[in-house]
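User: Small ask, check this?
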Amino acid sequence: MDEIRELIERWVAAVHAGDLATVLADHADDIVMFDVPPPYEGVRGLAAYEKTWPGFFEWQASGASFELTSLDITEGTDVAFAVALLKCGMPDETLERRLRLTIGLRKLDGRWTITHEHHSFPHDDLPSTTGESAVRTILDSWTAKTTARDLDGLMADLAPDVVSYEHAGPLEYVGREAVREVCAAGLETPAVFTTPDQTIVARDNLAVAWGIDHVAVEGTETRSRATRVFRHTDDGWRLIHQHLSFPQ
C-alpha cells in the first residue's frame, strides 16, 4: 500500500509541476482515462493520454493548484484501486470545489501500474425541466394546503429569508414569520386558491414563476397578478420572493 501511495503522490506532484515524463511514468500502454472534458468515450492508450496534458500544464502554470486532500487505497494481490479528492483550480475556486479521482492499478512485472483514471467534478447545474416540474408541484400543493388550512404546510415551501410584496399592509414582509402572519389571516376565511396557466422558467438553482392567482371565497372569485422566485437549497426548492398586485 505504501508503494501505491508514493506512486500517486509522485504523480500528483508531477502534474502540479508540469513534469510530463513523471506524469506518464507508471502508466500502462493501454491506459483508459475518463477525463473532465470530452471525448465522452474516454482517452485510450498512452499516446492519447500524453496529448491531454500540455494544455492542462499551460493552465496549471497560470497559478492553479493540484493538491491531494484525501487518498484511500484498497490493495489486492495484483489489482488495486484508489479514490482521492484534490484541490484543482485557481485560489478563489478551491475553497470548496474538489476534483474527484479514481485510479485503477494492476501489478505488471512486479510493480504497480496505473491502468485506469477517472477524473470528475460534481455537476451542480440542475436540468431546467426538473426545476420547473418541482416548482409546479409546489404551486399545485398550495391549493390543497389552502383548502385544508394547513398553515405549517404552506410555510414549509418558504425560505427563512423570504421577501413578499403583498396586496395590502406594509411595503414588504421580510422573513418567514412575517409572511406566516399574512397567510394565517387569509386562512381564517374558507377559500379555494388556484394558480392555473403558470409560466415557469428554471435555470440551475433559480426559478421564476408568473401568472394569475385565482381565489374563490364564498362564491366570489378574485384574480391577482403574481410573480414568484424560487431558489434550490439542500432542502429542495424554496420561495425567496413573491410580488402580488391588483391592476389599478
Notes: The chain has a mean pLDDT of 92. Residues 196 and 212 are 7 Å apart (CA to CA). Residues 128-245 form a domain with the Nuclear Transport Factor 2; Chain: A, fold (CATH 3.10.450.50). Helices lie at 2-17, 20-24, 46-51, 53-60, 128-147, 151-155, 176-186.
